[in-house]
Amino acid sequence: MKLIPTSTVDNRYYISLNGESVGILDYIDYGDEIEVKYIKIHMKHRRKGIATEVINMLKETNKKITGDALPDAIEFWKSMNAYFYETIEYDETTLTPFIIN
After folding, report:
1. From CA 27, how far away is CA 4, in angstroms rounded?
2. CB 90 within 8 Å of CB 97
3. CA torsion, points 1, 60, 55, 82, in degrees to nearest 10?
């Protein structure tokens, strides 16, 4: 699995598996912390452990990982051992901040 930058001006990466783009990851590396903006896996590649593998790659940096989980993603982040904070409403969207140490 590889992370390939989508351009030289942002923090988005194509998730490439066997030469095929299977998803996209957007994150910011602050030095001691990685903030995951989003991770999205293409429909036909879901439920194959790809997002888990990508987050495990980020965990190997030994940096804390933070972000805001959408309701449909809570179970995924729980499986990554995320600790959750109080849910917030933002522009009609429910977000649950999390941290993985």
Report:
1. 13
2. no
3. 170
For residue 34 the two structure tokens come to 């990685």
The letter for the amino acid at 74 is I
pLDDT tens for 8-55 read 777 899 999 999 999 999 999 999 999 999 999 999 999 999 999 999
Residues forming a β-bridge with 26: 12, 38
What local confidence, expressed as pLDDT, does residue 10 receive? Answer: 76
**If we measure between CA atoms, which residue out of 19, 10, 11, 9 comes closest to residue 58?**
11
The residue type at 89? E
DSSP state of 100: E
Amino acid letter, residue 17: L
1-34 as b/e, with b when 16 or more CB fall inside 10 Å?
Answer: eebeeeeeeeebbebeeeeeebbbbebeeeeeeb
Q: What is the DSSP letter of 92?
A: T
Nearest CA among 27, 70, 25 for reference residue 50: 25
Q: In which residue are the tokens 């593998």 written? A: 53
**Among 92, 51, 97, 56, CA closest to 74:** 97
